[in-house]
Amino acid sequence: MGTPGDRGTSGRVRTALARLRTLLSPHPRLVDWSLFALLLVVLLTGVLGFLSGRPDEAWVFATHGVAGISLVAFLYFKLRRVRGRLAELTVTRALSVLMVLATVGALATGVWWVFGGTLDLGPWGLLNLHVGLGLLVVPLLAYHLTRRFRPLSSTDFEGRRTALQYTALVGAGALAWRLQGSANRLLDTAGATRRFTGSRETGSGDGNAFPVTAWVADDPDPVSVSDWTLSVRGLVGSPADLAYAAVSPAHEDRALAVRTDRASFAVHEDRALLDCTSGWYSEHDWQGLRVGDLLDAVGVHEDAAWVQFRSVTGYRWSLPLAEARDATLATHVDGDRLAHGHGFPLRLVAPGRRGFQWVKWVEEVRVTRRRDRSEWLAVFVSGVEE
Ligand code: HEM
To answer: Using one digit for the tens of pLDDT, what is the confidence trace for 98-148?
Structure first.
């Protein structure tokens, strides 16, 4: 039992906290709309992050982190307001509870990941769980809006007070996000050395010894080089079909039959970092041929703007022509012939792009005027029928 003095102190703390809550709590409808806006930002930057891998795109992840952490305060205000209504559970309420659980789960797994956490879920890991929980929020949020939508009105804003509340709440989120970096370094967690994309280093400089991952269902049988050619098609002067020996820099590979009259290409080497959206990165010296050399050899039409790389599985991705010229079609990694899982005989190396855009098992390079929109679908369905 505490002394009357203790009770006096805790009472004063409780009163001060209650006053702070009243001071910081925006109008209920503003809380709802802020939650909606923050969720939208978090979801959009989460998805955009999958397409961002260059240092100048680090803002995408910073915005994701700040908006994610800022959600905590608004969630607190919201749950305090509605908790009494949860006793009588309806379908709409049950789905709202599920949405809160998915959001809190995404928050917790995001922070856990950032502090170096791991989780073994078979082919998936902690970051995949985070993304899965985040995406689960989308349909639940859409349903919630159809049932609970209330427009904002000017009376929900209280001028300077509202501005100060938002400065304090989002400022606290930004500060917590910033301090997370320092805390990580101080505690020396596995998250301290992650890239700005959240990915952690593995197997750099060690040939094929980095994880094999496939985007969705791509998992073809090993490719036999005697049945394989690299076709160059589309807006080119002279379409070509090149055998492995014509594109491989390794001496022993040149001994294989050449099914083209085209000369071999100069050996090109590029040091590039492969950053996978499942949360790891690996830096290597990739050897192969420069796409620019290949395009110069076949001649590109003036109105060409995109270069598409197609896999034996139907998977495909395009790069703008100028970027594609500097990309590499690799046959080797750190001097070792590419393993099947890493895309033998030929894999696209596209520096600054995320791993799923580094097409494996490339069998066709197609030069086009417009981007092929169907590739957005192909990345999800290629390999599914196998
Ligand atoms: C309700 C939805 C989501 C919430 C509340 C959420 C929240 C968070 C939070 C709080 C972090 C930790 C940030 C930090 O402390 O620096 C984080 C990290 C991360 N999130 Fe999400 N997230 C959501 C959805 C998504 C989605 C849909 C994706 C991808 C499609 C995604 C990708 C990531 C990645 C890659 C990281 C690691 C970033 C890093 O290490 O700095 N998130 N998320």
So the answer is: 999 999 999 999 999 999 999 999 888 999 999 999 999 999 999 999 998
Closest residue to atom 18 of ligand 1, CA basis:
110
- Number of the ligand 1 atom closest to the C-alpha atom of 47: 30
8 A C-beta contact, residue 284 and residue 334: yes
Quick check: 359 and 311 in contact, CB under 8 A?
yes
Q: How many domains does the chain have?
A: 2
CA 372 from centre of chain: 21
Helices 91-114 & 126-148 angle (0-180, nearest 10): 150
Asked whether residue 274 falls in the same domain as residue 376, the answer is yes
Q: How many CB atoms sit inside 10 A of residue 91's CB? A: 9
pLDDT tens, residue by residue, 270-327 = 999 999 999 999 999 999 999 999 999 999 999 999 999 999 999 999 999 999 999 9
- C-alpha of 68 from chain center: 16
Tokens coding 233:
């098609």
Joined together, the tokens standing for residue 336 give 């070792």
With the most atoms of ligand 1 within 8 angstroms of its CB, the residue from 45, 130, 140, 170 to mutate is: 130
First to last CA, the chain: 69
- Clarify whether residues 268 and 161 are in a common domain: no
Predicted local confidence at residue 267, as pLDDT? 85
Atom of ligand 1 nearest to the CA of 194: 40
Q: Which atom of ligand 1 is nearest to the CA of 135?
A: 27
Which residues of the chain are under the pLDDT cut of 70?
1-7, 250-264, 383-386
| C-beta 71 within 6 A of ligand 1 | yes
Distance between CA atoms of residues 138 and 135, nearest Å:
5
Distance CA 133, CA 16 (A): 36
Same domain, 80 and 121: yes
Token representation of residue 278 = 């499942």
